[in-house]
Amino acid sequence: MRTDLCTEAQSPATTRRAHGSAVRVLFDDRRGVYVPFTGIGMVATLLYEALRHEPAVELVPVSSLGLKGADSGLTGPTVVRKLYIDQVALPLRARRKVDVYHALYHEASPLLLRPLVVNIYDFSILTSAASYSSKQRAYYGGLLRLLARRAHTVVVSSEWTAREMDAWCGRLRVRVVPCPLDPMYFEPVVASAVESTLTALELVGSEYVLYSGGLHARKSLAVLFEGVARAQTWGAFNGPLVLTGAPEATAQSLAVRSGCETRFTGVLPRPMIRDLYAGCAAVVSASVNEGFGYSAAEGAAMGRPVVCPDRGALAETAGSAAMTFRAEDARGLAGALGEAAHGGRNAALMQARAEARRFAPAKIAKEMIGCYQEAAS
Predict the structure, then answer these.
(1) pTM
(2) Which CATH code fits 183-358?
(3) In the chain, N or C terminus with fewer CB closer than 10 Å?
(4) What are the domain boundaries of the chain?
């Protein structure tokens, strides 16, 4: 179901500001409109909501331009329409309407006649190419390098990704701006809500560990399941691995083969996912392709230990909550889970909660405004 980011109280085409010095930004909110609270859609939704209250910017959301098919993917009969919108229609609109174009994903046109600010989150399209279709590799993989060189500013969400950018694309104008975190993770935990969620999912009294992220092969799921299965065998904790999101056949098959006790919850409302964080023994991921890692940020904000590999951005994002293991090492993952289960890290976890405040949407919006003003100047 479509969820418009523009409210009825706003102009249908723009969020108008009376200040003459406001930077007019064509804000590519399409993923926030059509998939509002997963991955890039989370960034688009939270950042838009924070920016539209700032007098220094005047937002022109792409979703408000009436470009039918602007949300299309690279499949089905709408692919030609998508290519036309990305590579022809939007550059023309940007030329007429705005000072800066902010592409929240690398799917804009390198022919833009306005300064471009583009987000690049990770390099999985290059490092895990087999996980993508040939069309995706050709289009997004090709555009990644082109747009990185064309952009006035490349926004990356971690120092890890900034170093990867140097390796893949050379030294460009890069700004590290973390992804914004849902403000509900900064609110006090409501014990009755947590109990209600755990009761509904039959997890009351269970010492479970939580994985909240994509269930794709490129997320190193085989290592995840094998490592958690080892920890369960060793008696590190007495509950299942709980995985949120729509289960995929490949993920379920890997879980069965590993012998890991799992619980696939399916898609849940966001408050229920927050309650799962509050009740878990640890947050865990084996993915090495993360440029930020929302699960690491959410786990840290909730004061939970975050077990993650020493490669990728997860440990950087988790801060003091991180408990790392050697990448792709299932035995190491099991050992880190065992350490997490023993507790004794209260001071570090309290510090992690404080550190997570750096992901507050209002703070991230201020950093992005700086990017816009530099580009517009």
Answers:
(1) 0.90
(2) 3.40.50.2000
(3) N
(4) 23-180+360-376, 183-358
